[in-house]
Amino acid sequence: MRPVNLIPPEERAGARKPMRGGPLAYIIVGALAAAVIGVAALAVTSNQISDSKAEIATLEEERTTVEARANALNAYTQFHSIQEQRTATIASLADSRFDWQRVMHELSLVLPSNVWLTTLSGTVRPGVAINGGASSSLRGAIPGPALELNGCASSQDAVAGFIQALKEIDGVTRVGVQSSALPAGGAGESEGGSSSCQTRNFIAQFQMVVAFDAAPISSETGESSEAVPAPTETVPASSEETAGG
Q1: Which of 8, 26, 142, 203 is a Cys-bridge partner for 198, taking CB atoms 3.0 to 4.6 Å apart?
Q2: What is the dihedral of CA 194, 197, 200, 204, to 10 degrees?
Q3: pTM for this entry
């Protein structure tokens, strides 16, 4: 007779228990796990987006504050820029404007007693026309400020001494002599027959140009017309004073 096991299969010890739900249970568990992971990932992403938006809002507020502060200080920046421009303009004008007052003062100090001027003109550049002023062909060779002097001296030696005295003026770089001659005809008349400062036959009449080559030249149109007007004709020394000189 063969033995028969009356214990149900699912309760038998050591035997493989059959699956009650089959693979469906595992599929459901996996789906639930995936859903939990997705929800967690979505929550983390949402938190990151919220943090980023909060940071952007903070940066926007800071930018607005900085722009408002910059706009408030913009007036000071413009004022500083205008101040620098005006300072540069004033410095440029000061450097380019020739100090005629100083030159005239120094000329009066070095002018000898045996030399007198009939015409005197000063221009910052050649080509500036002055009514009644001295005119010399040497002026065109000097691009910067220069003095044009016409006058007489008690002798040729006095003319040479006057040239050396002119070099003592601050800023003078060279002195050009257009002419220096004793009267060819009678005293008191020039070769053209016009009135002259040569009242004696030993008086030398000269034309010369004093150059200031180191002086800056302004590019402005108004500066180029600056000139020292020619003075009225100087009365020469008397005969006794000229002979004594």
Answers
A1: 203
A2: -110
A3: 0.50
